Amino acid sequence: MSAPAAAARPLRRRLFASLEVREYRHFYAGLVFTLTGFWVRLATLGWWVYETSGSYSRLGVITLASMLPWVPLAPLAGVLTDRRDARGVMLWSQLGLAALNLGLGLGLWAGVVGWTEMLLAAVASGSLRAVENPARQSMARRLVGVEALPNAVGLNAAAFQATQALGYALAGGVYALAGAGACFLLVSAFTLPMVVQLARLPAAGGPARPAGRRPLEDLAEGFRYAFTHAITRAAVLGAAGVILLLLSFRTLMPGIAKDQLGLGPVGFGGLMALGASGRSGAPCGSPPGRPRAAAGSSAWAASSCWPAGRWPPWRSGARSGWSAPRCCWWASARWPSWPGATPRSSNSCPTRCAGA
Predict the structure, then answer these.
(1) Structural domains of the chain, ranges and CATH numbers in brackets
(2) What confidence score (pLDDT) does residue 285 get?
(3) Positive or negative CA dihedral for 72, 78, 81, 86?
(4) pLDDT at 258 over 70
């Protein structure tokens, strides 16, 4: 579909254009479940570690154990996904995660899982997710094509943030009612819808590669691309900075919630869900063929709308009662301007969001 034709479609259809593809719609439903399970596991793991040890150091160690495998494995997994069926890579990774969380849940109920077992499970889970992530990202392009890819990427990001609030709240309630074992069993169950959807998709080989191309050459090409192009370099370095400087507080939150705020698992889950709800407005739409504008609108939406209730920056000093998701929904759909887009005015933001 041409850019003028796409612009003529109703705004709501443009925001959810990729969901018109049946296979991606089913894949997205499975993605919502598996991402919810991811956040349930993250909340459960942190609370269990601090509840059983009372140690902030162990919170840091368990987080490091979960994240460290990404450094060597994620780039290699990208090379693997380029050369193999992304669906198969993701399917086997999801099956491994389901089995791992099932074993943890049963082990906790049987009383045979302690700190050492949980630490090893964190390394295994981080390794499986490092392998699964490149395959999951590539599935969107395979299912919706290049034209609708920016919209699918935005919807994936929206699901990642929205399920964070749901997952934390759900983990707090289940932990309080039935303990950590039940939470891990729930995570395992939440993996199954994605497994079913992946099994229904036909297998497809990776993109065509030049004959005789070695995996290490593909790996080097990937690093060159990431760090020699301005947009990808800024995205990689920006994401690293956000994770290290802004999101690392999440590691210590179980201890802070329990000791400093006097909260139980329900209070901890609610607190983290409340914080996540303010970041759940990931962009769902972007101008076709304009990656720089899409990246700009995503960054602008994330930076200007994170504190819930703030007006966009061109209305300096003003405030409103909007929630962050509604504000960012407007930002992703209407900012920045590009050739052919409807010019924005200083009063169009409340008008647009009021009809959301």
Answers:
(1) 1-13+285-356 (no CATH), 17-207+248-283 (1.20.1250.20)
(2) 44
(3) positive
(4) yes
